[in-house]
Amino acid sequence: MPLVNMKDMVDHAYRHNYAVGAFAVVNLEFLQGVMAAAERCRAPVILGLQESPSQSFDFDLLVSAVEAAAQRACVPVAIHMHHGNDIDSAVRAINRGCNGVMVDASHRELGDNIELTRAVVAMARDCGVPVEASLGFVPEAEGDGTQPDAGEIAHTSVAEASGYVEKTGVDFLAVSIGTVRGRTRAKPKLNWQRLKQINEALGIPLAIYGGSGLNDSQYGRLIANGVAKIDFYAALAEAAFEQVRSSTKGGAGGRYATAMRAVREAVENETEHFMRVCGAAGRAAEVLEQCRHWTPVEHIVTQNVQGMTDRDVEALMEEGRRVLSTIPGVLGVCAASVVRDDEIYRCSWMVRFCHSAAVDSYREHPDYLTLASRRPRSAPYGGLDARRTSWGSGNVPPSASRPGRVPQHSRG
Questions:
Q1: Which range is least confidently modeled, 10-14, 98-102, 107-111?
Q2: CA nearest to 119, candidates 134, 136, 135, 131
Q3: Element (H, E) at 335
């Protein structure tokens, strides 16, 4: 499974002077087109997702498809949630399979931006997930392709960026230097001096939104000045829309399947162009070799239920499933009544974590501590213990034989 640590991937691009494309996927045609391009030119890729405020797609369904695409890919993949509004959206993204999150509080006052971002970083770091944040404002192009007035663009300042990174600890910073989301008739005028100064001051990978509106030479200058992640959507959407419009005029003979295939091919061609221009093509093998794979971990928790009735045990199992599933880093929880010689430990949960770091941090979560404090009547001891032992070669359960699954065990 070539789902790799996103921080490792972007850091690799930063050190080797190229940029990884973060391509927004809004349906299966976009997902298939982006992955086909990545496979064809052997490039690392970031699949970008965002909770849809307009409900134009089901986030949970789409993220499952994205994760499946990553698992069967032959190139390194990261799954990134961009433009998250708060810590709750970051937790939801991580618990649904994203291994990178962005909190976009750029519209808030600087102090509020720092406070929110710091909280997201603390939560995500406990899950092993890197965080991207945004400082400055990147406007959207007008519907007719005209560029907003320069006064509407709040460029990122060097002083604020330095203080922001120091206070929040973000892994990547999206900066505003004159790019515009969407296509514009005029060539965007980028503040190259400002970007150079920010890169020299921070020394961390920078990200750019509004990559679709730039030309090939501008990509090279961005990369030379510390940009290691460039987000693309507008160009893919425009290429897809042109195919849909052509189909409605009879170009696809009125056949839906033919029109959707044309959309996938258009997205694939646009994606491949960006990958090659940004220097990511041909980098897949070295990224896979040098970056840590992103491997979920399974953990078994058992509870002392001595003195409890079967009905109480069933209620406890359901409560544990509900409580544990909301803790950051938990991908899923399966409750089971285990038949054992020591019947007092027949209540258990199989918890699937996004990363081993989440296993170490979840025991400090308030919801876990509340659950762990449950002490059955007549029990000599109770609750969920913090001890953990890894399954050895002599007692590995069937689930341990699956790639990426490392069952572990806690018992109270």
A1: 107-111
A2: 131
A3: strand 330-337
How many Cα neighbours within 13 Å face the side chain of 204? 19
Compute CA distances 197 → 136, 159, 376, whole Å: 15, 10, 61
Q: What six digits make up the tokens of 12?
A: 């690799």
Give me the domains of the chain, ranges plus CATH numbers. Answer: 6-290 (3.20.20.70), 297-411 (3.30.70.100)
To which residue do tokens 């001051």 refer? 201
pLDDT digits (tens, 9 = 90+) for 381-409: 334 543 333 332 233 333 333 334 434 44
How far is the CA of 24 from the CAs of 176, 178, 220, 259, 274, in angstroms?
Answer: 19, 21, 21, 20, 13
Separation between Cα atoms, residue 45 and residue 201, nearest integer Å? 27
**Region label for 146, one of left (φ > 0), alpha (ψ between -120 and 50) or beta (otherwise):** beta
**Residue pair 230/219 in contact by the 8 Å Cβ criterion:** yes
Rg (alpha carbons) of the chain, rounded to whole number: 24
Phi, psi of 27 (to 5 degrees): -165, 180
Q: What is the pLDDT of residues 182-223, one digit of tens each?
A: 555 556 788 999 999 999 999 999 999 887 778 889 999 999
Other CB atoms within 10 Å distance of the CB of residue 390: 12
Predicted TM-score (pTM) of this structure: 0.85
Query: How confident is the model at residue 1, as a pLDDT?
Result: 55
Kindly report the backbone phi and psi dihedral angles of residue 265, in degrees, each rounded to the nearest multiple of 5, phi listed first.
Answer: -65, -40
* Per-residue confidence (pLDDT) for residue 16, from 0 to 100: 97
CA 275, CA 281: separation in Å to the nearest integer? 6
Q: Tell me the three-class secondary structure of 353-410, residue by residue.
A: ECCHHHHHHHHHCHHHHHHHCCCCCCCCCCCCCCCCEECCCCCCCHHHHCCCCCCEEE
pLDDT tens track for 255-291: 788 889 999 999 999 999 999 999 999 999 999 999 9
148 three-state secondary structure: coil
Give the bridge partners for 350, in sequence order: 300, 334
Q: How far is CA 184 from CA 85, 136, 338, in A?
A: 27, 20, 62
